[in-house]
């Protein structure tokens, strides 16, 4: 058994490394698309002579500063996720019906990615600069956070559904889980407001290249978080230290 | 000689553990707010944090201006 402090520190360190590497993915795969979107944004601003947006002409932080800030953002985001992941692992470990800690960590990471990334992504795909109405930022933030809550609820419903149906066999267990998960998100998707602020002139290819880069960044983060934490709690990997101590 | 794979690595959940765990989550969410949302929807620190984290926010899927 490990103490909570030891688990939390492992989560924070794994999250830091996962965030840093997700930053490397975002830098190579995402930055070119952000640059392209900003070029479109600036070309649009030049045409309309919108002097109300002088901040865009003389930015507070240079583009190079923002590229470096990308690593800061993903790393801190990774630390936050890693810490919360360690807390969730501590509180939920006994409810996960497996004897293997590493397998439990991987399952939890898969559930987290599904609920926190994939469910919000499919309803409100992220948008590059030059897409999005600044006046609706509050609405978009609230609905985004709502989709995360709904995503986690849907995962919980899926687990509950699969356990309820498990008495009828493996096939029923899978079907029950999928049905409860899908029913939850389909209902939520229908109720949540549609948001479509992509200008007709914005290139569809660039939009989706950006979106897949964003999904890849978050997938990298969760994949490394899951496998990293699984390794960090694996007795088979850490056994030598225990013996030596 | 393989070590046993089966183990439960976590301490039992006590009220004290729960309090420490929730406090940790609260502090982490505060940090997360600064990274992902400050000056996104609500302004607390001016534009600086938003501008520094700008590219990361977009690529992490958080709504941005």
UniProtKB/TrEMBL annotation, chain A:
It comes from the Bacteria. The chain crosses the membrane at residues 7-27, 68-91, 103-122, 142-159, 171-192, 212-233. The lineage of its organism: Bacteria, Bacillati, Actinomycetota, Actinomycetes, Propionibacteriales. This is CbtA family protein. It comes from Kribbella turkmenica. Keywords: Membrane, Transmembrane, Transmembrane helix. InterPro entries: CbtA_put (IPR012666).
From TrEMBL, chain B:
InterPro entries: CbtB_put. This is CbtB-domain containing protein.
């Amino acid at each position: 058994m490990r103490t909570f402090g030891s688990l939390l520190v492992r989560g924070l360190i794994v999250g830091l490394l996962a965030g840093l590497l997700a930053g490397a993915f975002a830098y190579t795969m995402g930055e070119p698309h952000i640059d392209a979107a900003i070029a479109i944004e600036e070309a649009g601003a030049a045409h309309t002579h919108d002097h109300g947006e002088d901040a865009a002409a003389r930015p507070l932080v240079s583009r190079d500063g923002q590229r470096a800030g990308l690593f800061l953002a993903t790393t801190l985001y990774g630390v936050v996720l890693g810490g919360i992941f360690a807390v969730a692992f501590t509180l939920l470990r006994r409810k996960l019906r497996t004897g293997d800690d590493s397998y439990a960590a991987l399952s939890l990471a898969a559930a987290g990615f599904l609920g926190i990334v994939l469910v919000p992504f499919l309803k409100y795909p992220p948008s590059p600069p030059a897409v999005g109405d600044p006046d609706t930022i509050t609405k978009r933030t609230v609905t985004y956070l709502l989709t995360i809550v709904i995503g986690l609820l849907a995962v919980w419903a899926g687990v509950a559904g699969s356990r309820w149906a498990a008495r009828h066999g493996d096939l029923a267990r899978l079907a029950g889980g999928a049905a409860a998960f899908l029913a939850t998100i389909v209902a939520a998707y229908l109720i949540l407001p549609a948001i479509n602020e992509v200008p007709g002139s914005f290139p569809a290819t660039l939009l989706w290249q950006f979106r897949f880069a964003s999904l890849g960044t978050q997938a990298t983060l969760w994949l490394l978080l899951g496998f990293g934490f699984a390794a960090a709690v694996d007795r088979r990997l850490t056994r030598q230290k225990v013996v030596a101590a | 000689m393989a070590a046993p794979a089966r183990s439960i690595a976590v301490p039992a959940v006590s009220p004290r553990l729960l309090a420490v765990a929730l406090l940790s989550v609260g502090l982490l969410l505060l940090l997360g707010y600064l990274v992902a949302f400050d000056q996104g929807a609500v302004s607390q620190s001016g534009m600086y944090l938003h501008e520094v984290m700008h590219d990361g926010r977009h690529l992490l899927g958080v709504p941005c201006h």
